Amino acid sequence: MTTDSLRSDPGATGRSSRDGSGSRDGRSSRDGSGSRDGRHSARLPVREHLPARDSATATATATATATATAPDVPVLDVVIPVYNEEKDLRPCVVRLNGHLARTFPYPFRITVADNASTDSTPAVAAALAEELPGVRYARLEEKGRGRALRTVWSASDAPVLAYMDVDLSTDLNALLPLVAPLISGHSDLAIGSRLTRSSRVVRGPKREFISRAYNLILRSSLAAGFSDAQCGFKAIRREVAERLLPMVEDCGWFFDTELLVLAERAGLRIHEVPVDWIDDPDSTVHIVRTATEDLKGVWRVGRALAVGALPLDRLARPFGDDPRDRALTGVPRGLARQLVGFCLVGALSTLFYLALYSLFRLGVGPQIANGGALLVSAVANTAANRRLTFGVRGRGGAVRHQAQGLVVFAIGLALTSGSLAALGAASGAPSHGTELAVLITANLAATVLRFLLLRAWVFPERRTTERDDVEAPLPATAVLPVRNESEDVR
């Protein structure tokens, strides 16, 4: 089966939304209007536990063929990307199909995604698709694991999408724990991890070192919180994939990492499963070339995150009923976290300010030194609070925020300059230590006022309203553009 036939298969395009609106990507609004101002809403349906089949169907799946012949749309679509795997493909698919038929309580599908193989892999895959009704075959004329996953996942009608390597290095008993949180609606993505304490891994020291070094790079450069980016054992809910895939640029081995980094930065829930894993000594992966491409990808994504070039606001909490989005009377949202961030930024800003004041004081009077030090530290303070305390991403509104921050700075300047003036009038020629003590006291008072102004005026919290059983739509800035149905998947 080619990629074109995969798209045209009626079973592969039945993406009606859960509310019955018939939208291909499930983006219609909850109130049945299907759009807001002519655009589909970016908010997805609440994560729901996918319904199990009735007992009769569940009993019928005890055999290997019952699941494959079930007319239901599959709950799980497992993709196996391959390139020149004529020897390993058949035993892999037969073993996986048998395991799913025995243990998986939902309809499933196995899709072999051929990455432009030049050996007899296409013939083996086509034969498997003919032999096993639950197996499909998609042919791509370009190489790239990410390209294969993007193509098949984008065309699949299954609500849960997964993939695994053809060598089946990962114990298949971890497959159900991997997808269960996605089926239940608890999580958005799931990954197998070889680096947790409870994982049992057999592989050489070279691959162990490379894997741990790579994940250390991700943690230090991209602040990644997941433990194993490159384990070939992952799953994702389809509605999440529909939002994430258009943002992922890589079509090769870095595809996994980029997908996970974007998901984590957008606040999506990633479930990790410890796996038992045995290294394949005959793996055809080119370690040096793959590592080089991965490092290039880390640099590209890190730079995009640093300059705010990625539209992560489109993904910010659109999945499910987040309790933080509920309007609760009398409960300040995020106040504790903001106070901690503000205090940390304030402490560092105060040290920076005092260092600048001491430096400027060597050449100018106290008033000029205070004004210059406060101005420089105020700009840095506003930028740090914008990013760390109040979680504002991107460049939008940065100039306005700095202008408002300068107004707050003027108030602080009035307090500190007034304190210095009062000190000079009272003692005539105060010591440098006395000046610093007075400035610290004045800055404490200015700090309290600064936090209140930043929270209420410079970075006001977006207020949301909630109706009974209806989610409040995201603001207009979080609306995703409607995807053209005829657009080819990269």
Jot down its keywords.
9 strands; 15 helices; 7-stranded mixed β-sheet; 10% strand; two-stranded parallel sheet; 47% helix; disordered C terminus; 490 residues; alpha/beta; disordered N terminus; single chain
Could you walk me through the main structural features you see in this protein, from its secondary elements to its overall organization?
With 490 residues, the chain is α/β, with parallel strands linked by helices. The protein is 47% helix and 10% strand. It contains 15 helices and nine strands. It has helices spanning 3-8, 55-60, 64-69, 89-103, 121-131, 145-155, 175-184, 205-222, 238-244, 255-265, 287-306, 335-361, 366-389, 398-427, 432-458; strands spanning 76-82, 108-115, 135-140, 160-164, 189-193, 200-202, 233-237, 270-274, 276-278. It has a seven-stranded mixed sheet with strand order 3-2-1-4-7-5-8, sandwiched between helices. It has a two-stranded parallel sheet with strand order 6-9. β2 (108-115), α5 (121-131) and β3 (135-140) form a beta-alpha-beta unit. α4 packs parallel to α5 (121-131), α8 (205-222) runs parallel beside α11 (287-306) and α12 packs antiparallel against α13. The chain starts with a helix and ends in a 32-residue tail after the last helix. The model is unreliable at 1-5, 7-44, 54-71 and 463-490 (pLDDT under 50).
